[in-house]
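Predict the 3D structure for this chain.
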Amino acid sequence: MDITLEIINIGLLILSILIIFILRKYYNNKINQLDNSLTKIKSDKISQSTKYGQISEEFFPLEQSYPYESKNFKFLGNPIDGIQFNDDRIIIIEFKTNKSQLSQKQKHIRDLIINNKVDFELIEAKI
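Done. Predicted structure below.
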């Protein structure tokens, strides 16, 4: 009878280990699925935020807080948002929302302007 009890105990132990192994694999798969879902949600959020920012940029000159005459603003979109043509000066404008920052290309453009590396050139088309 002792041998039968030991066999049952060993069987229960093996069954317990097998159940633990199966549960661990199941929950690891669930965790991986949740991680993948979370990564996609974060990516979608960033994409949505970017789209919102791009759409908003086109309307910023129409807001009351815009300090210039909006009809003299020309939207470009990329790499900068636009150019404001005033009577006494021309202003390169980049709108930012929330915590967004200038891209490397936008910083380079800003630095070119600061260092007086902006020119006007007339190119005549020969048609």
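Residues 72 and 85 are 5 Å apart (CA to CA).
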